[in-house]
């Protein structure tokens, strides 16, 4: 029907927010694996449960970063008739897996920590425990610095950033516990394990909540649909906007669609194209939405749609 038009704006290309920071994620993955291996050896030699809990946390971090990297590679694969947005949503599924792993490790660390506190091991080597934790602290600080720039752009990078931050705090907890063990309070090792678990849980919940918002196709943070509607209706010739939706395909890829009612006489003289151009300029200038689809229709079409809905 001649009164219907569609506008698509694609400025994001094939890349995603995670893909833009892939190299830094690889470096952080290598650092994390190295520290994890050191902590496992240190835990076995020193007898520290807190070190082992932190190593378990490191393992989940490494797994999460690895999944994020794989998902970001999948997200670069081209779209197809059966997957019109390609594999971009794979990044969100990776973040979901990461959140679930984080939550599992947190519960295990808390349960085992309580058990160790009740039955402490008096043979823990506090010096080795502290030394390994200091190395972990320095390594995590480096990883945190590498990920700080990208954590506001991608759920997966943010997940990795929060994990490394948790690792850093975990190292601090192990160092503090080591000092208490050294002065004759071995139960501090179990308490440190519980503390590490309690630090992980809120981060797992936060990440899970953000993933759920994407999967439920909630309006992206920072996009006020009423303001969007007001701007669109302020364009000359536009008499109404309905079926306005905004959601997120993956981190950094918000999309929007709307039915735009335009004056009948303007459409009759071919003014629909000009309205589309102004709509794209409006959305691009005021709102951070890369992919927009507009259906231009006359007022009579809106009346027809309303009668069908009712």
Specify the helix fraction band.
Answer: 55-70%
Unreliably modeled segments: 1-14
Report on the biggest sheet: 3 strands, mixed
Helical segment count:
10
Widest beta sheet: strand line-up: 1-2-3
- Rg over C-alpha atoms, rounded to the nearest angstrom: 26 Å
The first-to-last residue Cα distance is 23 Å
Number of strands: 3
Give the SSE order as H and E letters.
HHHHHHHEEHHEH
Report the portion of residues in β strands: 5-15%
**Helix/sheet category:** mainly alpha
Mean pLDDT: 80
Overall shape: elongated
Task: Compose a concise summary of this entry.
This protein is 65% helix and 10% strand. The chain is mostly helical and 310 residues long. The two termini are 23 Å apart.
How would you explain this protein's 3D organization?
The protein is mainly alpha-helical and 310 residues long. The protein is 65% helix and 10% strand. The protein has ten helices and three strands, in the order αααααααββααβα. The chain has helices at 22-46, 49-75, 90-118, 126-147, 155-182, 187-215, 225-233, 264-268, 272-286, 299-309; strands spanning 238-250, 253-262, 291-297. A three-stranded mixed beta sheet has the order 1-2-3. A hairpin with a 2-residue loop joins strand 1 and strand 2. Helix 1 (22-46) packs antiparallel against helix 2 and helix 2 runs antiparallel to helix 5. The model is unreliable at 1-14 (pLDDT under 50).
């Amino acid at each position: 029907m001649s009164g219907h038009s569609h506008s698509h704006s694609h400025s994001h290309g094939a890349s995603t927010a995670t893909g833009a920071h892939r190299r830094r994620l690889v470096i952080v993955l290598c650092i994390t694996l190295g520290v994890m291996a050191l902590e496992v050896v240190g835990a076995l030699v020193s007898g520290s449960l807190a070190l082992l809990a932190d190593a378990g946390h490191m393992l989940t971090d490494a797994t999460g970063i690895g999944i994020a990297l794989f998902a970001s590679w999948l997200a670069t694969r081209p779209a197809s008739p059966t997957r019109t947005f390609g594999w971009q949503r794979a990044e969100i599924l990776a973040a979901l897996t990461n959140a679930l792993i984080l939550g599992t490790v947190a519960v295990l660390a808390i349960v085992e920590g309580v058990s160790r506190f009740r039955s402490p091991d008096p043979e823990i080597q506090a010096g080795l425990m502290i030394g390994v934790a200091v190395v972990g602290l320095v390594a995590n600080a480096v990883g945190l610095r590498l990920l700080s720039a990208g954590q506001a752009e991608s759920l997966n990078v943010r997940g990795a950033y929060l994990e490394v931050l948790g690792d850093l705090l975990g190292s601090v907890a192990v160092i503090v516990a080591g000092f208490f063990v050294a002065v004759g309070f071995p139960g501090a090792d179990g308490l440190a394990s519980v503390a590490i678990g309690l630090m992980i849980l809120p981060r797992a919940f936060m990440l899970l909540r953000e993933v759920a918002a994407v999967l439920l196709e909630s309006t992206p943070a920072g996009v006020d649909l009423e303001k969007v509607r007001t701007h669109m209706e302020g364009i000359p010739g536009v008499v109404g906007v309905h079926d306005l939706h905004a959601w997120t395909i993956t981190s950094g890829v918000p999309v929007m669609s709307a039915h735009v009612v335009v004056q009948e006489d303007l459409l009759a003289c071919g003014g629909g194209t000009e309205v589309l151009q102004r709509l794209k300029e409006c959305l691009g200038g005021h709102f951070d939405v890369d992919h927009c689809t507009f259906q231009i229709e006359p007022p009579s079409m809106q009346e027809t749609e309303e009668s069908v809905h009712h």
